[in-house]
Write a structure and sequence with these properties.
Number of helices of chain A: 11
Number of domains of chain B: 2
Oligomer: heterodimer
Largest sheet of chain A: 6 strands, mixed
Order of helices and strands of chain A: EEEHEEHEHHHEHEHEEHHHH
Radius of gyration of chain A: 21 Å
CATH topology of the largest domain in chain A: Rossmann fold
CATH superfamily of the largest domain in chain A: P-loop containing nucleotide triphosphate hydrolases
CATH architecture of the largest domain in chain B: 3-Layer(aba) Sandwich
Helix content of chain A: 40-55%
Bound molecules: adenosine-5'-triphosphate, magnesium ion
Largest sheet of chain B: 6 strands, mixed
Order of helices and strands of chain B: EEEHEEHEHHHEHEHEEHHHH
Strand order of the largest sheet of chain B: 6-7-8-3-9-10
Strand content of chain A: 15-25%
Shape of chain B: globular
CATH class of the largest domain in chain A: Alpha Beta
CATH architecture of the largest domain in chain A: 3-Layer(aba) Sandwich
Chain lengths: 284, 289
């Protein structure tokens, strides 16, 4: 079953003083329920625009987008579309609305009309999941950049959507914070079957996904498993992207004729493969 | 020569209020002419608060900030001038974009410095190129840009002032890998050419290892380490403890060292990793061309 289904989806921003600028160009895409997808692409390639289509902040100007079978352009289904897909925006300032962290996180569940006890439980769980429970009484605008980002994530987690779309949720987090957020969303995906779509410029974060999509100029130009995608170093470079450091090291050594696999993703995998090559050399 | 310096710098947010928070605790450090220092530290450790003191956006609760030996607050009326000399790119670019076109936004600093129209045009063009912003975006509203395009605009606006000291708060967050490499290279070239002192806040250990001469590690409002990049990344266990890490290639070589395969783990960049790997392969008789 697919939760997101784009059919020839096109979109252009219409600004009065500008020529229309086509940002999404005939995107065909289907995302299976329960999958974990990483969406990569250069600045301006259309990632955030596509993400905003998924919960009907923006509507297609051509083609259509179905969320769990519902057409996002159908005004009668707007509420259900937004309940199904939770979007963490790229800039937390655009998402934080209340003057107290706790109220901010409660905002979404309140709009879902949940009983107060359930709301309280969800707010607490979500704030703990992002390590911000200690700040529940603080003011969002008085937090550091990374702290704001965590609170914004908690606000969407509290809505427990079927599909979580995160637009660069880790851009301003320290390495541990990045690991924690990734672990949290992987756990939601694994344990609750939540579909996850994560946009990132950190290639190593995409390495743990089931599927990697690459956007370029408003189109999806690559689609495959992390190993399939990251073994195509030259093609990724053309899309202004990169590969994780262990993959890059492997690539450079392969260029020098060293017999390492092309699809190494992590430091651990590199170490094991490198050890094997050294052993082969010693045996010869 | 020490260009920028803090003496017993302290700062508290909301003093006397229930959410009083001491964000800087007795910081005394100096930054040398032409050096590039990376500032790392866990979320909330005080990085942004520190850099905002260095160009006079925040005023110390106690202690001093010295630029070329002079207290920047000696004459508070002069603080505007300090902000031209010490350029700062904010953590959230939205906080510094406000004009109705990208072009005007980049021109804002140079215009306020009283430069001629011709000079302003020249600088806008140069700065846009510096950050890889295509000319087609210059007439757009900065609010209609993608996240990475906004960041590029904010960086261009500061570069157009050609500051003596350049401070960038997480400049590569939200940039695509190509843009990240381009801008880091450009910053490095700029400071080598002009002897500019650069401070760069970052959460990317890979970027830090590649570009920084020195690394300043903040933890709980204090300075935890301040040393050359290799000496800081040598303390991997302590960094992990603080919520930080070391570059992936450094992890690879410390794992190889643990297995007795590599004899040292002083590898911080891809270039060093490649060299070290080739040396190991040759040692074991593996052909490398
Ligand atoms: N509100 C808007 N009005 C007009 N054009 C816009 C608007 N928002 C974005 N754009 C343009 O649409 C294109 C795609 O923007 P989008 O935000 O989807 O990119 P992105 O892939 O998310 O990039 P980034 O990695 O920089 O966040 C960009 O070229 C941008 O300039
Ligand atoms: N306006 C404010 N009022 C009260 N406290 C604040 C304010 N701004 C920041 N703080 C607090 O001061 C501490 C330091 O914040 P700062 O922004 O310097 O952190 P940082 O190291 O830059 O973090 P990040 O990596 O998340 O950007 C944080 O704990 C934050 O909650
Ligand atoms: Mg975006
Ligand atoms: Mg900060």
């Amino acid at each position: 079953m697919e939760i997101i289904n784009a059919q020839a989806l096109s979109f252009s921003y219409e600004n009065p003083d500008e020529a229309p600028h086509i940002v999404l160009e005939g995107v065909d895409l289907s995302i299976e329920k329960g999958s974990f997808v990483a969406l990569l692409g250069a600045n301006g390639s259309g990632k955030s625009t596509l993400a905003k289509q998924c919960n009907a902040i923006l509507l297609p100007t051509g083609g259509k987008l179905l969320v769990d079978g519902m057409d996002t352009a159908d005004p009668d289904r707007l509420f259900d579309v937004r309940r199904t897909v939770g979007l963490v925006l790229q800039n937390p300032d655009n998402q934080l609305v209340s003057s107290i962290v706790e109220e901010d996180v409660a905002f979404g569940p309140e709009n879902l009309g949940l009983p107060p006890q359930e709301i309280r439980r969800r707010v607490e769980d979500s704030l703990r999941a992002v390590g911000m429970y200690g700040y529940k009484d603080s003011a969002p605008h008085k937090l550091s950049g990374g702290q704001k980002q965590r609170v914004a994530i908690a606000g969407i987690l509290a809505m427990q959507p079927d599909c979580l779309v995160l637009d660069e949720p880790t851009a301003m987090l320290d390495p541990q914070g990045r690991r924690e957020v990734l672990q949290t969303v992987h756990a939601l995906n694994r344990d609750r079957g939540m579909t996850v779509v994560i946009i990132t410029h950190y290639m190593e974060e995409a390495a743990g996904a089931d599927r990697v999509l690459v956007m370029d100029g408003g189109k999806i130009c690559m689609d495959g498993t992390p190993r399939e995608i990251f073994s195509q170093v030259d093609k990724l470079r053309e899309c202004r992207l990169d590969v994780p450091q262990p993959t890059e090291l492997c690539y450079r050594l392969r260029q020098k004729g060293v017999n390492l696999p092309a699809d190494i993703l992590t430091a651990e995998e590199f170490v094991a493969a490198f050890e094997a090559v050294l052993k082969e050399g010693a045996d010869r | 020569m020490t260009v920028l310096q803090t003496e017993n710098l302290c700062y508290t947010y909301s003093p006397g209020m229930p959410f009083e928070h001491t964000a800087l605790h007795d910081i005394s450090i100096g930054f040398e002419q032409g050096e590039l220092t990376a500032i790392i530290g866990h979320t909330g450790s005080g990085k942004s608060t520190l850099v905002q003191h260095l160009n006079g956006l925040l005023k110390p609760a106690s202690g001093r900030v010295l630029l070329n030996g002079e207290d920047i607050w000696a004459d508070p009326k002069n603080i505007r001038n300090i902000r031209f000399r010490v350029g700062m790119v904010f953590q959230y670019p939205e906080h510094q974009l406000f004009e109705d076109t990208v072009e005007k936004d980049i021109a804002f600093g140079p215009r306020n410095m009283g430069l001629s129209e011709e000079e302003i045009d020249q600088r806008v063009k140069e700065a846009a190129e510096f950050v890889g912003l295509s000319a087609s975006l210059l007439k757009k509203s900065p609010f209609d840009l993608s996240g990475g395009e906004k960041r590029r605009t904010a960086i261009a606006g500061v570069m157009a002032m050609r500051p003596e000291v350049l401070i960038l708060d997480e400049p590569t967050a939200g940039l695509d890998p190509h843009g990240r490499d381009l801008i880091l290279e450009q910053i490095d070239r700029y400071r080598r050419k002009n002897g500019t002192t650069v401070l760069l806040v970052s959460h990317s250990m890979e970027d830090v290892a590649r570009i920084a001469d020195k690394v300043l590690v903040m933890q709980h409002s204090r300075v935890a380490m301040y040393d050359t990049a290799p000496r800081v990344f040598d303390r991997a266990a302590e960094l992990e403890e603080m919520g930080l890490s070391v570059p992936a290639v450094t992890r690879i070589f410390s794992q190889l060292a643990d297995k007795g395969i590599a004899d040292h783990d002083a590898v911080y960049t891809l270039e060093q990793a490649e060299q070290a790997a080739v040396a190991l392969l040759k040692e074991k008789g593996v052909t490398v061309c």
